[in-house]
Amino acid sequence: MNRTLFFSRCYFILTTIAVLSVPFTSLLYFFITPLLLIFWIIEGDWKNKWMRLKESGIIIITCSLILFWFINVIGLFYSNDLVRGLMRTYDKLPFLVYPLVFFTLNKDYFTKEKLNHLFKGFLCATTIMLLICWGNALTQYFITGNTYRLYYIYFSHFFGHPSYCALIVCIALCINLYFLSKPIKNYRWVSIILLFLFVTSIYFLQSRSGILVLFFILITSLFYYLYTHKKNYGYGVAGIILVLLFAFALTQLFSGRIGSYIKATTHEQLQLEKVLGLRNNIWQISYKLAMENKMLGIGTGYHNESYLTDEEMQIIHKNTAFINAHNQFLQTFLEHGIFGLLILIFFISYSFYFAIKTKNYLLLMLLISICLNMVFESMLERSTGIFTFTLFFCIFITKNIFLQPFVKNEPHLA
C-alpha cells in the first residue's frame, strides 16, 4: 500500500465512523478529532495543502473557524477555573481540526461517490435512531397509557436533548431532499418515505426551534427546487398550503407540548414571558452579566457562583459546566466579549454569503438550521452541537471543492 492510499483510507474510515456515530452519540469525537489531527500532521505535504486551501477560496472561512476556537484559548488567561476552561477548549477542538483537515485534503481521497456513500450512511443511521425512538415511545405509551410518553424528552430518551436530536434529523432531511431532487433510479420512493419519517419525528421531538427550522427548510427547499428546475411558482404556493395543512393536522391529532404553545398564542392576554418561559429570565441575567464584562467577557472556564447571586442560581444552576445563556450569540458575548461576538457574527454572515455564491444547497440549509437553533440554544457549547455542526459544515463545503479540477502535480491513488 502506497503512502497516498494509506492516508486516503485513514481519513475516509475516521470520517465514516464520525458520520455514522453522530445520530447516536457525540462521544467518539473525543478520539476522532485528535486522530484526524495526528494523521494530518504525519502526512505533511504542506506545500500542496497550502495550494489546495488557497485555490479553494475558503481561507476566510478557515481563519474564522480557527479564530473562533482561538478565542477560547485567550479566554483561559482570565478564567478562574483553568481545568474547566481546558475541558471546554478541548470540546471545541473540531473548530480548529476539521477545517485544517477537510479543506486541505487531496481531492483523490474523497470522490463524489464516496461522499454520497457517507450521506446515505448518515440517512441510514438517523433512520435507525428514529426507529429506536419510536419503538421506545410507543412501548412506553402502551404500558402506561400516557400520551406524553410520545413527545419531547421521552421520545429522544436514549439520544439526548430533543433540540440537538432535531438538528441532526433536520440535517438528514436536507440530505434526503438533496437526493430527492436528483434523478436517482429506484430511490425516489425510499426518499419520500424517509421524508415523511423525518418530518413527523421532528414534530414529535417537540423542539420549538426544531419545528421552526423544519418549516424554513421545507419552504426554502421548495422554492430552491422550483428556481433551479425552472418550474412555475404556483407549485410553491400549493406546497406551502400542503405544509400548513399537514402541520394543522398534526397539531390537532397530536397536541403535546407544541399544542399548548399554539393555544397560548390565541389568548388575548398573551405575554412574552409565558411563551419564552424560563428563557426570558435566563436571557435577562446573561445579558446583564455580559454588559458588565463587555470587553473581554468572563472567560472560558469559571465557577458559576463567582458571577451569579443566590437568587440567580435558582434559575441557572450552580453545578453546570457553564452559565448556559440558551442563545449562542449571547453566550459568546458573555464569555468572550464584543470581539468574540463579532467573530461569530462575521463567520455566520460570510458563510451565508459563501453558500449563496457557490450555490451550495446543503451548506445553506445547514446554516439556516444552526442559526435558528442558536437563537434558543447555545448550540456551539455542547459536544453534540459542536461535533454535528463542524463535521457537516466542513463536509458540505468539501463536497463542492471536490467538484473542482485537480491541483497541478497532485499525487494520485495507485
Explain what this protein looks like in three dimensions.
The protein is mainly α. The protein has 19 helices and no strands. It has helices spanning 3-21, 29-43, 46-56, 59-76, 82-91, 94-102, 112-144, 152-155, 162-180, 188-205, 208-228, 234-253, 256-265, 272-276, 278-292, 310-313, 328-357, 361-376, 383-401. Helix 1 (3-21) runs parallel beside helix 7 (112-144). The longest helix has 33 residues, at 112-144. The protein is globular and about 60 Å long.
Low-confidence parts lasting 5 or more residues at pLDDT below 50?
Answer: none
**What is the N-to-C order of secondary-structure elements (H for helix, E for strand)?**
HHHHHHHHHHHHHHHHHHH
- The chain-level structural class is mainly alpha
For the secondary structure, the number of strands is 0
The separation of the N and C termini measures 9 Å
